[in-house]
Amino acid sequence: MIAGSEPPSFLLSRYHVWLTITHVSGSPEAGAVLREKVVWPERELHWCISHCARLAPGELLSCTVRLLCLTTGDPAGVAELLRRVQSAGVTAEVTLVSPQPLPLRPATLLDLQVPQHDDSLATTLSLLHTHGCAIFPAQPDRGLPSLVALAARRTALVTHALTAAEYRPFVDDFMHVEAASRTSGRIEVRLPVSTSEAACDDRDAQAIRTLASSAPWASAVRAALRDSAPLVTASVVVSRPGAQSQLWHADAPHLEDSRRDNCQPSPPWEKWWTMLHQQTAANGEEQRNTGAVPPHAICVFLPLIDITPELGCTQMWLGSHAWPQLVEQAPGALGTALSPEGPLALRGAVLWPCVPAGTGVMYDYRLVHRGAANTGDVERPVLQLVYRTHKSADGGPGWDEGVNFGSTSLLGALEPHTAWLAKLDGTHGDIDAARGVDWWASQTVQDVADSASHAPRASAWALFD
Known about the structure:
The protein has 465 residues and is an alpha+beta fold.
């Protein structure tokens, strides 16, 4: 609360604002115009412009403001602020107002596509580092019909076992070794993987091993994880017509942060933000993110049918993998900002990968995402491969994907030479891993700060102290 002569109905607040620029008169640098010409003494307005590049119409200007705001909400204040911006010669619309800066990494499917004529490994690493996602176009020789049949067999086997155990497979909540429910109308069925290259009786398990090790993204997986022989698990996620949208989530935490905090629950967002500001300001550091930390797990979605907006897809918040605080805090804190019609989605920061069957959608396991609702009239089956390294970047144990399933079995023992978890071998595994080590080592902290959506530096917070 502001002491002294200020009325008790006002609070000194910080807001991060994204303005969609349509026109700048005079100086082409919108940031300079705002700092020099937009004043509001009664509200003690201060600007922190985190991106002062020459902006073209339609681009976002990311900035932080400090001003006195009504404690009960201040729509009139926001409207007046926008009027003062326009009076200074900057024509803009308020796209988003948030208590904190957020990573915005707009990109199209074409932007994220890995070209086949280029160094695909380096391209994939760069896309994963910047956006947390890379797209591998569908290939006709990927054996899609056999994968569709494989997924159908395993799903039928599990749903029959669930029914025999008196479950309603797509209605009730359950977690078993072989399958688990994923919100109403959606289940995930694990697929066995062959543990060796030698032929085994389980052709499904051998097919999964072949796909995981020979897919065009295999080299990039080894490089991203810096592991010549990472571990791999497989499953199929089936969303029936009427399946609801999931909550925004990440499939795994940032391991280095969870161990640093001794696995204590994260504080509320406001307290976390205050702690971050105090820590970075004291140390003279930039806003902390862990984009420079290589992923400890990589997921690849392979839709088994053509994905349409009606059938839904796995929506992804590009760039969110680099910010540990977003994993638990942002989905609840942002509300409609991440909704299909929200400002982040409309600006392209939320990717809708409606792609043909057989397309490989690779993403960092820390990326915030969700499965969208299925409003179509057919099931949406998506094969999922999860690759993880034996050890995380800080030397601790790797992520165990099995925690997303239960401990009791529906089907009993697996066939010989099969498992839920297998080692991914490859002819060039050592070379891929070595290239990954060199590539990640070349990414400096400043590179990461520059790539993380123009977040303001900690030193700029001195304006608000």
